[in-house]
From TrEMBL:
HAMAP family: GDP_Man_dehydratase. Its cofactor is NADP(+). It catalyses: GDP-alpha-D-mannose = GDP-4-dehydro-alpha-D-rhamnose + H2O. It is an enzyme of class 4 (lyase). Its EC number is 4.2.1.47. Signal peptide: none annotated. Catalyzes the conversion of GDP-D-mannose to GDP-4-dehydro-6-deoxy-D-mannose. Belongs to the NAD(P)-dependent epimerase/dehydratase family. GDP-mannose 4,6-dehydratase subfamily. This is GDP-mannose 4,6-dehydratase. Residues 5-349 form the NAD(P)-binding domain. Keywords: Lyase, NADP.
């Protein structure tokens, strides 16, 4: 049985990847951080009985800042494949904790590579490093001649997160070249899902739209509406992570959809999923969105209602204005075919958040009923 070790298993990608590897018959080990609260919501459905000897998912306490702990886990688990997905992954937050991000996202990668090397596993263990489109920094002059970012384009990171991840990128490449290790970078463009963290822009939008549609929230505040991202579905992207480690030769790969969309248009699409049409008025920090039509009888909001404003506190000290990736190499050489387009992604996320918010409403109603009976 193949053995995989996933750092960041409790995150969006880690949870989908664990699901995929279990389906493929792997023994999956995951590293989770010690927390005073439960932090395994995204993988609880995979982890039913930790006492069952046939359970193929095992969690280990650990942290990417702790090399002794990482070395011990790798020694105990002897993985065929390591997926290094653990990171402080929020770009805006990285401006507040630059040193921590350097330690986790940059040096954490080195700790994994060096542990594998010191344990003499460099010929056994294949390593996937979660690199990112943030490395490109969105500089227009660095795109290829077709206007996309691909594996040949230069990097120019624009945040402490991007700078830490560039260390992770190069140290992975260096260990591949220096020690002939099978270590690859997946340069993944933004990917989202119903399991996306609540403070990333897509999930912040779909949660707020669901609440507004159900009358639980008045409006949403966002930052830069002009930013453009190449958004795919996390389920498609974790499949690609696995495919990258099955390739004959260790290489670096760009994974993207090849379509870019503004934050403003994502908002429009999310509202349209519940039949609400918007008009945007004003510019810059004064831009607002108003409801112009409600075409779904279940989601009726007052026509003319202001549902979006800009809050400059969400602006970043340096911004990545536009990301657009060219996944040709991955498609041609690995045969990657994504199942979701942007519309499918928005639909999946909106369905997830409507269901979640309705459940909250039902719980609230049930609570009121119980109170009434007690009174
Ligand atoms: P995520 O949901 O934020 O998950 C990050 C994971 O890393 C969580 O399990 C988190 O644990 C863990 N983690 C954080 N700090 C850690 C530490 N010090 N030691 C060990 N684990 C730690 O991120 P994601 O969207 O799944 O992304 C997965 C990876 O791909 C990240 O490295 C990210 O930077 C990279 N990436 C993501 C995208 C994207 O669009 N999603 C694109 C390109 C690259 P807790 O649950 O305890 O917080
Ligand atoms: N988070 C957030 N919140 N972003 C906002 C908001 C807001 O209220 N309003 C506008 N934005 C803009 C940001 O300024 C950025 O330009 C864009 O929306 C996307 O922001 P995020 O969803 O936070 O993602 P990101 O692109 O910065 O980073 C994500 O993708 C990277 C790959 O390109 C993260 O998943 C990174 O870990 C990943 O490497």
């Amino acid at each position: 049985m193949k053995v995989a070790l996933i750092t960041g298993i409790t995150g969006q990608d880690g949870s989908y990847l664990a699901e995929l590897l279990l389906e493929k018959g792997y023994m999956v080990h995951g590293i989770k951080r010690r927390s005073s609260l439960f932090n395994t919501d995204r993988i609880d459905h995979l982890y039913q009985d930790p006492h069952d000897p046939n359970q193929r998912l095992k969690l280990h306490y650990g942290d990417l800042t702790d090399s002794m702990n990482l070395t011990r886990i790798i020694q105990e688990t002897q993985p065929d494949e390591i997926y290094n997905l653990g990171a402080m992954s929020h770009v805006k937050v990285s401006f507040d904790s630059p040193e921590y991000v350097g330690n986790v996202d940059g040096l954490g990668t080195l700790r994994i590579l060096e542990a594998v090397r010191l344990l003499g596993l460099e010929k056994k263990t294949r390593i996937y490093q979660a690199s990112t489109s943030e490395l490109y920094g969105g500089l227009p002059e660095n795109k290829n001649e077709r206007g996309f970012y691909d594996e040949t384009c230069p990097f120019y990171p624009r945040s402490p997160y991007g700078v830490a991840k560039i260390y992770g990128f190069w140290i992975t490449k260096n260990y591949r070249e220096a020690y002939d290790m099978y270590a690859c970078n997946g340069i993944l463009f933004n990917h989202e899902s119903p399991r996306r963290g609540e403070t990333f822009v897509t999930r912040k939008i779909t949660r707020a739209v669901a609440k507004i549609a159900l009358g639980l929230q008045d409006k949403i505040y966002l930052g830069n509406l002009e930013a453009q991202r190449d958004w795919g579905h996390a389920k498609d992207y974790v499949r690609m992570m696995w495919m990258i480690l099955q390739a004959e030769k260790a290489q670096d790969w760009v994974i993207a959809t090849g379509v870019t969309t503004t934050v403003r248009d994502f908002v429009r699409m999310a509202f349209l999923e519940v039949g609400i049409e918007l008009e945007f008025k004003g510019e810059g920090v004064d831009e607002k969105a108003y409801v112009t039509a409600c075409n779904n009888k279940d989601y009726q909001v007052e026509i003319g209602k202001e549902v979006l404003s800009v809050d400059p506190s969400y602006f970043r000290p340096t911004e990545v204005d536009l990301l657009l990736g060219d996944p040709t190499k991955a498609k041609e050489q690995l045969g990657w075919v994504p199942e979701y387009d942007l519309k499918g992604l928005v639909k999946d996320m909106m369905e997830g958040d409507i269901k979640l918010m309705k459940r909250d409403v039902d719980l609230l109603k049930a609570g009121h009923e119980i109170l009434k009976q007690v009174e």
